[in-house]
Each structure stands twice: as C-alpha cells, then as structure tokens.
Design goal:
182 residues, alpha+beta, elongated
C-alpha cells in the first residue's frame, strides 16, 4: 500500500511540472482616470463669492467636480513673495479662516488651507511645469452642499399678526372660585 501511495504522489508531482495552460484574457476597456476639464475656462458659479483671484492670473484649467471637490488652475507671471502676501491679505479681508499655511522658499512653493462659510479649500503656489518663470495657482475647494428638499420638513407659515383677541376656549367643567367670579 505505501508503494502505491508513493507512486500516486510521484505522478501528481509530475503533473504539476507540465506546461501551464494560458487562460484567455478579456480586452481591457480604456478609461480616463485623470482629471477632466470643463468645456469652458470661465469661473464656475459654485466658487466662493468672496474668493480673491490674483490680479492678472489666467485660468488654465477648470476641472469637473470630483466627488464634493473642484479644482481650478491659474497661471501668473508674478513672483511667489508678492502672491503669498496678496493671498494672506485678501483671504483675511474676505473673512476666510486660514487653518494652516506652509512656505518652502527653496522649492518656491506655498500652500494655504482655509475655511469659508463651513466649506474647506486650499491654495497652492508652485513653479509651472511648462515654464519655470511662471507660477501655478492651484485652487481646490468644496462644492456647496446640495439639499434634497424631499428630505426636509415642510415649512409652516402662519398668518397671525401681533397680539389679537384670545380665541374662545371651551368652558372649564370644574371652575375655581376666581373663575366663577369672572
């Protein structure tokens, strides 16, 4: 019996050494995983109303929303120190709450995270990949919340104006002495 078992094991191992059979591979559909741009380079209506845009900056890309976020990329001929000073000043004037800021002079980059009206956003300044003499302004922000009206409680509107006559009340079946006198 042990010899038969050993022979079966040897045959099994020999079968493993045979050439593998290739499984058919289904064609893979090409999908774009990169960001897609809006058809227009105009600033979207969902951008913060008070958002400062660096003077003379040119819109390069307006990305379609990805989840709850949108990205707008600008370019400018200005130098980083002037741009940083502009954004720090204008964000504070526009009631944006700056939550963090990081400058890396050696890399000529600056990033600033902020919050405005409950919506977070960030600005990043860095040299352009195409032209190192230009700066890229990368603005990323959260889109305004979309409220599903079907999930809201109905609004109640009353047409009562000021103090008026007291409505007639049902008589109390057990009036007190004071109520009997009135």
């Amino acid at each position: 019996m042990p010899a038969a078992l050993a022979a079966a094991c040897l045959l099994g191992f020999a079968a493993c050494k045979s050439a593998p059979v290739a499984a058919p591979i289904a064609p893979v559909a090409q999908t774009s995983t990169g960001p897609t741009d809006e058809p227009s380079k105009s600033l979207p209506a969902d951008l913060y109303k008070a958002m400062p845009i660096y003077p003379g900056a040119t819109v390069e890309h307006v990305r379609k929303p990805k989840g709850a976020m949108r990205e707008i990329m600008f370019s400018s001929d200005a130098q980083m120190p002037q741009m940083v000073a502009y954004y720090k000043d204008q964000l504070k004037k526009g009631d944006f709450h700056i939550t963090s800021s990081l400058i890396m002079p050696a890399r000529k980059t600056w990033s600033c995270d902020f919050n405005y009206d409950g919506r977070p956003g960030s600005i990043m300044l860095y040299p352009s990949d195409q032209d190192k003499a230009k700066m890229t302004i990368d603005l990323i922000y959260e889109l305004p919340a979309q409220v599903d009206e079907s999930m809201m409680e109905p609004k109640e509107d009353f047409d009562i104006e000021g103090p008026g006559d007291i409505a007639q009340q049902a008589p109390n079946p057990n009036p007190s002495e004071k109520e009997k006198r009135n």
